[in-house]
Amino acid sequence: VRALVWYGIEEVRVQDVAEPRIADPRDALVEVELAGVCGSDLHVYHGRETGLDPGTVLGHEFVGRIVEAGADVGLEAGTRVVGPFTTSCGACFFCERDLPSRCIRGRLLGWVQSGRGLQGAQAERVRIPLADTTLVPVPAAVPSREALLTGDVAATGQFAADLAGVGPSDVAVVLGCGPVGLSAVHAACQRRAAAVLAVDAVPDRLALAARLGAQPVELEQDPLASVHAATAGRGADAVLECVGSSAAGRLALDLVRAGGTIAAVGVHTEPRFAFAPGEAYDKNLTYRAGRCPARRYIEPLLARLAASPIGLAATIVSHEIPLEEGREGYALFAGRRGACTKVLLAP
Ligand SMILES: NC(=O)c1ccc[n+]([C@@H]2O[C@H](COP(=O)([O-])OP(=O)(O)OC[C@H]3O[C@@H](n4cnc5c(N)ncnc54)[C@H](O)[C@@H]3O)[C@@H](O)[C@H]2O)c1
Ligand SMILES: [Zn+2]
Ligand SMILES: [Zn+2]
User: Fold this and answer.
1) Which atom of ligand 1 lies closest to the CA of 175?
2) Alpha-carbon distance 156 to 287, whole Å?
3) What pTM value is reported for the model?
C-alpha cells in the first residue's frame, strides 16, 4: 500500500509499505478516505519529539471504511468509521473513568519505537487494534472531513474548554490559532464565555479565530495589555494553551488571573515548566494538562454534526490534496504558508 513514511528531520516520503494485516480477532483494517496532518506530526517532523523509528508511517487522524474485521469486531465491512488518535479497550480502569487516552492497552497511531507500536493512517489502509471499542460509525449525514476532525482536533478543543472549566461570564484566552486552538475558540464560544481572546502571530489564522467568535490578538502586540483591558486588569479566568512551547507556557502564566486555570493541551517537549513553583503559588494557579480522551468526545460531536452537518472543517481545513503529494503537504503546513491551516491527505 502507498503510505507517508518518516525518515528523519523534515524528511518524509510517500512510498510502498507492507500491506497491513489482521493480527488479532479485535483488529480491523480500514481503507482510508481522508487522513489529517496534525500539529503533533510537526513535533516529529521538526525533530522536537524523538524516539520514533525511521520508516514509520505517520498519521493518527482518519476517516474511512472497514474493509476487513477480525472475528471479535462487531462492525461490518463497508461501514464508514472515524477513530481517535489512540486505541482503547473500553474496559480498563482508565477507560471506565473517561480517560481512554490513558488506556492500559491503548496505543498511539503512527508511533513505532524500537520496533513496537502502530503504523499510522496517512496510508491507503491502516490496521486498527481494539477496533470495536476504538472506532465509531459515522452517520450518513456527516461529511467525511467534518467526521475526521471529531477524532482529534475538534475533540481536543472541547477538552481544553472542559479542562479550563470555561463558563458564562468568563474571559478566556486561547494561545495558538492552529487547528486545535481554533477548535478551542469554537468550544469556548459555545460555552458562552463573556469574551474569548485568541493569540497567534499568523494573520490569516487570527482572521479565522475572529470568524469563529474570538477577539484576535497579535502575539507581538502586547497580549497582556489586551487581556488586562478585557478584565479590569485582573487577567484571564482561563487560558487554553494550544501551542506546546516554553514561550506559550510562560505567556499562559502571565495572562491568567489569580485563582485562574491554565488548560494545556499543547504537547510539550522541553524538559521543564516555563515558570517556577513559587509563581504558581503566587497566582493560586490551577494547571491541567494532557492527551485528549478523544474517544469519549466523538459520539456527541458526530450527533451534533448529524443535526447540522457544517461544522469546523468548513473554517479550518484549508487543503485537501492527494496522499501522493503528502511531502508538499507537510512543507506547506509546517511553513504555515499559503494560508495553510489544516491539510487532509486523500489516498
Ligand atoms: N492534548 C492533545 O491530545 C492534543 C491533540 C492534538 C494536538 N495537540 C497539540 O496541540 C498543539 C497545537 O496543534 P495544532 O495542530 O493546532 O498545531 P499548529 O502547529 O498548526 O498550531 C500552533 C499555532 O501556535 C502558534 N504559536 C506559536 N507560538 C505561540 C505563542 N508563543 N503564543 C501563541 N501562539 C503561538 C503558531 O503560530 C501556530 O499557529 C500541538 O502542540 C499539538 O501537538 C495536542
Ligand atoms: Zn493530532
Ligand atoms: Zn482501556
Assistant:
1) 33
2) 16
3) 0.97
